[in-house]
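PROTEIN DESIGN WORKSHEET
SECTION A - STRUCTURE
LENGTH: 187
TOKENS:
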């Protein structure tokens, strides 16, 4: 039922696909989670679920937690997003690298981002409703943010140069990758 595929630049980030989607004139039905299938893919259990609604061209990220890093499984319920992960693991071959993928509500795909990555997304022109489960509880005391347009990381967000993005003050003022404390990264 559920299958995984690694992203090209970040092999630990997994695209999770579902080959059993039932569609008819009323709409669609699919299983969004099955513990044994996710375990078979190497994904741990989730302890918290979250829903985020975003207006058109809202950029949320790049967020991570230091002492209690979260794995996240992200899926779009309405609209579309460009979802991005940045490897924050000091010992990784892909340390500092990023990868991104378009997700939308028409497909039952999701993205699993393991602990040790910063995460963010850009809502499409129709906005988005995103649901995501996490492997640890949110702890505001360990929240960190990486600058969304840091030239060192150089994420290529799919928005035109003149597209006004909506960002929180925290995301707008986040530090650059090369100015983070070594403790802000993961082993």
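SECTION B - SEQUENCE
RESIDUE ASSIGNMENT:
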């Amino acid at each position: 039922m559920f299958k995984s595929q690694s992203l090209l630049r970040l092999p630990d980030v997994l695209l999770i696909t579902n080959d059993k989607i039932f569609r008819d004139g009323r709409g669609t039905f699919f299983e969004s989670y099955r513990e044994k299938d996710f375990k078979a893919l190497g994904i741990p259990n989730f302890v918290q679920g979250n829903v985020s609604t975003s207006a058109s061209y809202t950029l949320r990220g790049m967020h991570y937690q230091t002492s209690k890093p979260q794995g996240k499984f992200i899926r779009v319920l309405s609209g579309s997003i460009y979802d991005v992960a940045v490897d924050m693991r000091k010992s990784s071959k892909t340390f500092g690298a990023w990868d991104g993928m378009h997700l939308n509500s028409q497909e039952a795909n999701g993205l699993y981002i393991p602990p040790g990555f910063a995460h963010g997304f850009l809502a499409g022109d129709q906005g988005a409703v995103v649901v995501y489960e996490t492997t640890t509880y949110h702890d505001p005391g360990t929240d960190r943010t990486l600058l969304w347009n840091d030239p060192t990381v150089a994420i290529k967000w799919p928005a035109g140069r003149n597209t006004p993005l909506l960002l929180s003050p925290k995301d707008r003022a986040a530090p650059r990758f090369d100015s983070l404390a070594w403790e802000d990264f993961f082993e």
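SECTION C - NOTES
The helical segments are 35-40, 169-172.
The mean pLDDT is 92.
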